[in-house]
Specification:
This protein is mainly α and 210 residues long. It has two domains: 1-37, no CATH class; 41-184, no CATH class. 50% of the residues lie in helices and 4% in strands. The chain has a two-stranded antiparallel sheet with strand order 1-2.
């Protein structure tokens, strides 16, 4: 049984936390029940509202439901706007429509901020999201390879550099994305951690002690 305040995993029949002394069970009308209730999970409309409300908020924590509902919202809305761009002839030659581009521009900051808060919920730093930056570096390596092959007649030095960047940063990016996805579906810490209050708990929470 986890303590809602410090997160210690106590024995199932424990009445109080062995670390901080917080009560773990309480008598109810029907017998003994858990005293550590959680708030209802964030719904789809609530997640969208929270995403825009916390537009520039990179501090604090966010639950799995808030994060994945927001991701679903951005994917569905982006797809719908691409359809509208196609029907209204506002789709560019590159395959990027005007409305879709404006929507992505409007949601990139809150999406990144929400990703940071989701990592905070499992006590991880938001800097881990920078692993997505390996993919542009891999793309640059691919560009160097193309220049070497088709412009500079396969210049050995550029070919080696481009190939190393393409493969190296590509592999690092894939590994980093897999790690962040796994962390994204992981349940957050019980009680407080160093990034703030547990968003699932309605009760007061003690200060974080590392």
């Amino acid at each position: 049984m986890y303590c809602p305040a410090c997160g210690k995993d106590n024995l199932e029949d424990s009445r109080f936390c062995g670390i901080c002394g917080v009560p773990l069970i309480a008598s109810t009308a029907s017998g003994i029940g858990t005293a550590t209730s959680e708030l209802p999970k964030v719904s789809f409309p609530q997640a969208v509202k929270l995403g825009f409300k916390n537009y520039f908020k990179f501090s604090g924590r966010a639950t799995r439901a808030e994060y994945w509902w927001w991701l679903l919202f951005t994917l569905l809305t982006g797809f719908g706007l691409d359809v509208i761009d196609t029907l209204t002839n506002t789709m560019g030659d590159s395959g990027q429509g005007l409305l879709g581009f404006l929507f992505k521009l409007a949601t990139i900051v809150p999406s990144f901020a929400l990703g940071v808060r989701r990592l905070h919920d499992i006590n991880r730093t938001g800097w881990w999201l920078l692993v997505w930056g390996f993919f542009p570096m891999a793309a640059i390596g691919g560009g160097i390879l193309l220049v070497s092959f088709f412009v500079l007649d396969n210049l050995l030095m550029l070919t080696v550099i481009g190939f190393a960047m393409l493969i190296g940063f590509g592999i690092l990016g894939i590994i980093g994305v897999i790690i962040t996805i796994v962390w994204g579906i992981k349940k957050g810490d019980y009680g407080l951690n160093k990034y703030g209050l547990d968003p699932r708990q309605p009760t007061s929470q003690r200060p974080y002690k590392p």
